[in-house]
């Protein structure tokens, strides 16, 4: 099966993520991108490339081994691709997390213009 341009973009995106190359990853987005992300708040939040770099740089400080394992990609039409992946990492206290995430990317003219992520943002309470 032929790999679409959007699938190649997504593959490159996760390579940059897993190499912690935040600037390269942020440059795959449009100048300003619409995000839906429970960690950013309700509704659609606009983020610049610089804000994307800052967000992931901070996350990387907390979880130095931050990693995304892509489970499956689902191309949808010309502009959209859905990616199912598991994000994982280890916190300073050595606690580990694994978080299943689904993201819908809108890709226009080779750049990500929308990043709508869905995941459970509820903190687990210690028993």
**Highest CATH level, the class:** Alpha Beta
What is the correct CATH architecture? Roll
Count of beta strands: 6
How does the overall form come out from the CA principal axes? globular
Q: Tell me the β content.
A: 35-45%
Please give the radius of gyration in angstroms.
15 Å
Count every helix, treating DSSP H or I runs of 4 or more residues as helices.
3
Q: What series of H and E elements makes up the topology? A: HHEEHEEEE
Counting structural domains, the number is 1
Roughly how many Å apart are the termini? 48 Å
Main-sheet strand order equals 2-1-6-5-4-3
- Report the biggest beta sheet as strand number plus sense, adding barrel if it closes: 6 strands, mixed
CATH T-level topology: Nuclear Transport Factor 2, Chain: A
* Poorly predicted spans: none
What does this structure look like?
The protein is α+β, with helices and mostly antiparallel strands and 127 residues long. It has one domain: Nuclear Transport Factor 2, Chain: A (Roll). Helix content is 26%, strand content 43%. The protein has three helices and six strands; from the N terminus they run H-H-E-E-H-E-E-E-E. A six-stranded mixed β-sheet has the order 2-1-6-5-4-3, with helices on one face. A hairpin with a 5-residue loop joins strand 4 and strand 5.
